[in-house]
Design goal:
Elements: H1 19-27, E1 34-41, E2 56-60, E3 65-71, E4 76-80, H2 83-89, E5 98-103, E6 121-126, E7 141-145, E8 151-155, E9 167-169, E10 179-182
Antiparallel strand pairs: 1-2, 1-5, 2-3, 3-4, 6-7, 6-10, 7-8, 8-9
């Protein structure tokens, strides 16, 4: 017996359709001056917050927020804009009630420019995909540049150690083999 096609049977070729949204949301950072950059945690940790595990929350001066997390199956970052709803309704984030500053306006802080200057340029960071895994490392991070020329790389798998994290690194702290493309 022949089977009739039904539109509900469509199985997408990939469940990873977040990359266009990632590009759009990362592009929203252009021109933004951030009020806060924090790490969301469920337990206190001693590690340096800018290099630790766990999602990061960026808050603009106008109150707009972006949650950045890892999408581990493809080694990319994931930008989430509906932060309040996501934090309230997701089991993944439900216990993350501790917020630790990642960037502070202290003169010696390596990420100071993120909370003292606007974002003048946003670039997508990628690296060669893993064999047989399309879209892997397609957007493993973003590089933010301020008008003063300071650059901060935000992402996962940005070093040769290939660690699944949302890290905030200076250009000197990232590994070779990364590619940068303006949004």
């Amino acid at each position: 017996m022949a089977h009739r096609f039904h539109p509900d049977w469509i199985v997408p070729s990939s469940v990873h359709h977040y990359l266009p949204d990632n590009h759009r949301l990362a592009g929203c950072l252009l021109g933004q001056r951030l009020r806060a950059v924090t790490r969301l945690l469920d337990v206190p940790v001693e590690d340096e917050p800018r290099l630790g595990y766990g999602p990061a929350l960026l808050t603009g001066h106008d109150g707009e927020q972006w949650l950045i997390d890892t999408e581990e199956s493809k080694a990319n970052v994931l930008f989430i804009s509906d932060v309040t709803k996501t934090l309230a309704n997701s089991r993944r984030y439900s216990g993350m009630t501790i917020q630790v500053p990642i960037a502070e306006p202290i003169p010696s802080h390596p990420l100071r420019s993120l909370v003292t200057e606007a974002v003048a340029a946003v670039e997508v960071i990628s690296r060669d995909p893993e064999e047989g895994v399309p879209d892997s490392f397609a957007m493993c991070g973003v590089r933010l540049t301020t008008p003063g020329g300071t650059q901060i790389c935000v992402g996962t798998h940005l070093t040769d150690l290939m660690i699944s994290e949302v890290a905030f690194r200076t250009p000197a702290e990232v590994g070779p083999g990364l590619c940068y493309a303006p949004l």
